[in-house]
Amino acid sequence: MSRIILAVDPYGDISVDEITKRIDIVKKYIAGVKIGLPLLVRFGMPGVKKIIDVAKDTEHVILDFKLADIAPVMISTIEPFIGTGANEVIAHAFIGLDGALKEFKEYIDEQGLKLILVASMSHPGSTDIMDHVLDKIINVVDKLEPYGIVVPATRPHIIQYVKKKLLSRNIDVKIYSPGIGVQGAKPGSALRAGADYEIIGRSILYSPNPLEAASRIAHIHDEPVSLR
Predict the structure, then answer these.
(1) Nearest to 6 by CA among 179, 201, 192, 197
(2) Cβ proximity of 118 and 149 under 8 Å
(3) Which of 157, 172, 179, 195 sits in a 20 to 30 Å window from 187, CA-based?
(4) Which of 50, 56, 66, 186 is catalytic?
(5) Whole-prediction pTM value?
(6) How far is CA 142 from CA 44, 55, 57, 117, 166, in A?
(7) Domains of the chain by start residue, with CATH
(8) Is 66 a catalytic residue?
(9) Which residues have CB under 8 Å from 123's CB, separation 6+?
Protein backbone atom coordinates (compact mmCIF):
# COMPACT_ATOMS: atom_id res chain seq x y z
CA MET A 1 0.00 0.00 0.00
CA SER A 2 1.51 3.30 -1.09
CA ARG A 3 2.06 6.11 1.42
CA ILE A 4 2.96 8.72 -1.21
CA ILE A 5 0.65 11.65 -1.96
CA LEU A 6 2.03 13.41 -5.04
CA ALA A 7 1.82 17.20 -4.70
CA VAL A 8 0.98 18.66 -8.10
CA ASP A 9 2.10 22.27 -8.57
CA PRO A 10 3.43 23.84 -11.78
CA TYR A 11 6.98 25.20 -11.83
CA GLY A 12 8.71 26.83 -14.78
CA ASP A 13 7.09 26.50 -18.18
CA ILE A 14 5.74 22.96 -17.74
CA SER A 15 2.42 22.26 -19.46
CA VAL A 16 -0.57 20.56 -17.91
CA ASP A 17 -0.23 17.77 -20.48
CA GLU A 18 3.35 17.13 -19.36
CA ILE A 19 2.20 17.05 -15.72
CA THR A 20 -0.51 14.49 -16.52
CA LYS A 21 2.03 12.41 -18.42
CA ARG A 22 4.35 12.33 -15.41
CA ILE A 23 1.51 11.45 -13.03
CA ASP A 24 0.52 8.57 -15.28
CA ILE A 25 4.12 7.31 -15.29
CA VAL A 26 4.36 7.15 -11.48
CA LYS A 27 0.74 6.25 -10.72
CA LYS A 28 1.44 2.70 -9.60
CA TYR A 29 3.67 4.04 -6.80
CA ILE A 30 1.38 6.72 -5.38
CA ALA A 31 -1.71 6.67 -3.17
CA GLY A 32 -3.07 9.85 -4.70
CA VAL A 33 -2.46 13.44 -5.73
CA LYS A 34 -2.78 16.83 -4.06
CA ILE A 35 -3.80 19.52 -6.53
CA GLY A 36 -2.56 22.93 -5.45
CA LEU A 37 -3.95 26.41 -5.98
CA PRO A 38 -1.10 27.43 -8.38
CA LEU A 39 -2.26 24.76 -10.81
CA LEU A 40 -5.82 26.12 -10.73
CA VAL A 41 -4.58 29.68 -11.22
CA ARG A 42 -2.33 28.78 -14.15
CA PHE A 43 -4.45 26.23 -16.01
CA GLY A 44 -7.99 26.95 -14.78
CA MET A 45 -10.70 24.38 -14.20
CA PRO A 46 -9.95 22.52 -17.45
CA GLY A 47 -6.38 21.94 -16.24
CA VAL A 48 -7.51 20.75 -12.81
CA LYS A 49 -10.01 18.38 -14.43
CA LYS A 50 -7.24 16.92 -16.61
CA ILE A 51 -5.24 16.14 -13.47
CA ILE A 52 -8.30 14.65 -11.76
CA ASP A 53 -9.03 12.49 -14.80
CA VAL A 54 -5.58 10.93 -14.83
CA ALA A 55 -5.54 10.45 -11.04
CA LYS A 56 -9.14 9.52 -10.24
CA ASP A 57 -8.37 5.79 -10.05
CA THR A 58 -6.02 6.47 -7.13
CA GLU A 59 -7.36 6.48 -3.57
CA HIS A 60 -6.87 10.17 -2.76
CA VAL A 61 -7.64 13.05 -5.14
CA ILE A 62 -7.17 16.09 -2.92
CA LEU A 63 -8.08 19.71 -3.66
CA ASP A 64 -5.74 22.08 -1.83
CA PHE A 65 -6.96 25.57 -2.67
CA LYS A 66 -5.66 27.22 0.54
CA LEU A 67 -9.12 27.50 2.07
CA ALA A 68 -9.20 29.80 5.11
CA ASP A 69 -12.40 31.83 4.95
CA ILE A 70 -16.04 31.96 5.95
CA ALA A 71 -18.17 28.96 4.98
CA PRO A 72 -19.99 30.51 1.98
CA VAL A 73 -16.71 31.50 0.33
CA MET A 74 -15.17 28.06 0.85
CA ILE A 75 -18.30 26.33 -0.39
CA SER A 76 -18.46 28.47 -3.53
CA THR A 77 -14.78 27.70 -4.19
CA ILE A 78 -15.27 23.95 -4.02
CA GLU A 79 -18.74 23.74 -5.56
CA PRO A 80 -17.58 23.72 -9.22
CA PHE A 81 -15.49 20.62 -8.54
CA ILE A 82 -18.29 18.49 -7.09
CA GLY A 83 -18.70 15.37 -9.20
CA THR A 84 -15.36 15.71 -11.00
CA GLY A 85 -13.70 12.80 -9.17
CA ALA A 86 -11.97 14.79 -6.43
CA ASN A 87 -12.76 13.17 -3.08
CA GLU A 88 -10.85 15.13 -0.41
CA VAL A 89 -10.53 18.84 0.40
CA ILE A 90 -7.95 20.67 2.54
CA ALA A 91 -8.86 23.67 4.71
CA HIS A 92 -7.06 25.51 7.51
CA ALA A 93 -8.02 24.54 11.05
CA PHE A 94 -7.12 27.89 12.63
CA ILE A 95 -10.20 29.62 11.20
CA GLY A 96 -12.42 27.85 13.73
CA LEU A 97 -15.84 26.25 13.65
CA ASP A 98 -18.90 28.53 13.73
CA GLY A 99 -19.45 30.34 10.46
CA ALA A 100 -16.54 28.55 8.85
CA LEU A 101 -15.45 24.92 9.25
CA LYS A 102 -18.66 23.61 10.83
CA GLU A 103 -20.89 24.66 7.94
CA PHE A 104 -18.24 23.85 5.36
CA LYS A 105 -17.86 20.29 6.62
CA GLU A 106 -21.64 19.84 6.65
CA TYR A 107 -21.64 20.82 2.98
CA ILE A 108 -18.82 18.54 1.86
CA ASP A 109 -20.23 15.67 3.93
CA GLU A 110 -23.45 16.05 1.96
CA GLN A 111 -21.41 15.91 -1.26
CA GLY A 112 -19.56 12.75 -0.20
CA LEU A 113 -16.18 14.44 0.18
CA LYS A 114 -13.68 14.10 3.03
CA LEU A 115 -12.16 17.03 4.93
CA ILE A 116 -8.48 17.39 5.78
CA LEU A 117 -7.47 20.17 8.20
CA VAL A 118 -4.10 21.92 8.27
CA ALA A 119 -2.78 21.73 11.84
CA SER A 120 0.73 23.04 11.14
CA MET A 121 2.82 23.85 8.07
CA SER A 122 6.23 22.81 6.80
CA HIS A 123 7.90 26.23 6.54
CA PRO A 124 9.85 27.77 9.50
CA GLY A 125 7.35 30.60 9.97
CA SER A 126 4.71 28.12 11.07
CA THR A 127 6.51 27.93 14.41
CA ASP A 128 5.72 31.61 15.08
CA ILE A 129 2.01 31.04 15.67
CA MET A 130 0.54 27.74 14.51
CA ASP A 131 2.74 25.45 16.60
CA HIS A 132 1.89 27.50 19.69
CA VAL A 133 -1.83 26.81 19.34
CA LEU A 134 -1.69 23.11 18.48
CA ASP A 135 -3.79 22.15 21.49
CA LYS A 136 -6.55 24.51 20.34
CA ILE A 137 -6.30 23.12 16.83
CA ILE A 138 -6.58 19.59 18.21
CA ASN A 139 -9.76 20.73 19.99
CA VAL A 140 -11.14 21.79 16.59
CA VAL A 141 -10.16 18.41 15.14
CA ASP A 142 -11.86 16.63 18.04
CA LYS A 143 -15.12 18.55 17.58
CA LEU A 144 -15.20 18.47 13.78
CA GLU A 145 -14.02 14.87 13.20
CA PRO A 146 -12.31 15.39 9.84
CA TYR A 147 -10.86 12.53 7.83
CA GLY A 148 -7.30 13.81 8.12
CA ILE A 149 -4.91 16.52 9.26
CA VAL A 150 -1.74 18.04 7.81
CA VAL A 151 1.32 18.02 10.08
CA PRO A 152 4.81 18.83 8.71
CA ALA A 153 7.52 16.28 7.99
CA THR A 154 10.08 19.04 8.55
CA ARG A 155 9.37 18.90 12.31
CA PRO A 156 8.96 15.25 13.32
CA HIS A 157 8.59 16.22 16.98
CA ILE A 158 5.38 18.05 16.04
CA ILE A 159 4.06 14.90 14.36
CA GLN A 160 4.90 12.93 17.50
CA TYR A 161 3.26 15.51 19.75
CA VAL A 162 0.07 15.65 17.68
CA LYS A 163 -0.06 11.86 17.34
CA LYS A 164 0.25 11.43 21.11
CA LYS A 165 -2.52 13.96 21.74
CA LEU A 166 -4.80 12.31 19.19
CA LEU A 167 -4.28 8.86 20.69
CA SER A 168 -4.88 10.13 24.24
CA ARG A 169 -8.27 11.46 23.13
CA ASN A 170 -9.18 8.54 20.86
CA ILE A 171 -9.29 10.82 17.81
CA ASP A 172 -8.99 8.75 14.66
CA VAL A 173 -7.65 10.81 11.75
CA LYS A 174 -5.06 10.26 9.04
CA ILE A 175 -1.89 12.35 9.22
CA TYR A 176 -0.56 13.81 5.96
CA SER A 177 2.97 15.23 6.12
CA PRO A 178 4.45 17.67 3.57
CA GLY A 179 8.03 18.89 3.39
CA ILE A 180 9.79 15.77 2.06
CA GLY A 181 12.67 16.38 -0.31
CA VAL A 182 13.22 19.99 -1.37
CA GLN A 183 12.20 21.37 2.04
CA GLY A 184 14.67 19.09 3.79
CA ALA A 185 12.82 16.14 5.35
CA LYS A 186 13.98 12.69 4.26
CA PRO A 187 11.58 10.13 2.78
CA GLY A 188 10.25 7.86 5.51
CA SER A 189 11.01 10.25 8.37
CA ALA A 190 7.41 11.41 8.77
CA LEU A 191 6.10 7.84 8.68
CA ARG A 192 8.51 6.86 11.44
CA ALA A 193 7.24 9.81 13.51
CA GLY A 194 3.64 8.66 13.15
CA ALA A 195 2.30 10.02 9.87
CA ASP A 196 0.14 7.95 7.54
CA TYR A 197 1.15 9.63 4.28
CA GLU A 198 4.05 11.74 3.04
CA ILE A 199 3.18 14.53 0.63
CA ILE A 200 5.98 14.70 -1.94
CA GLY A 201 6.05 17.00 -4.95
CA ARG A 202 9.13 18.30 -6.69
CA SER A 203 11.37 15.38 -5.71
CA ILE A 204 9.21 13.11 -7.86
CA LEU A 205 7.31 15.27 -10.33
CA TYR A 206 10.36 17.30 -11.38
CA SER A 207 12.93 14.53 -11.12
CA PRO A 208 14.85 13.75 -14.32
CA ASN A 209 13.38 10.26 -13.89
CA PRO A 210 10.04 10.48 -12.04
CA LEU A 211 9.45 6.72 -12.20
CA GLU A 212 12.80 5.92 -10.58
CA ALA A 213 12.28 8.61 -7.92
CA ALA A 214 8.81 7.34 -7.02
CA SER A 215 9.99 3.72 -6.95
CA ARG A 216 12.97 4.56 -4.73
CA ILE A 217 10.84 6.46 -2.22
CA ALA A 218 8.19 3.74 -2.19
CA HIS A 219 10.86 1.20 -1.30
CA ILE A 220 12.23 3.46 1.44
CA HIS A 221 8.69 3.60 2.83
CA ASP A 222 8.46 -0.17 3.14
CA GLU A 223 10.70 -0.31 6.21
CA PRO A 224 9.32 2.56 8.34
CA VAL A 225 5.72 1.51 7.74
CA SER A 226 6.51 -2.00 8.99
CA LEU A 227 8.28 -0.61 12.06
CA ARG A 228 5.38 1.58 13.24
Answers:
(1) 201
(2) yes
(3) 172
(4) 66
(5) 0.96
(6) 35, 30, 30, 11, 8
(7) 4-227 (3.20.20.70)
(8) yes
(9) 154, 183
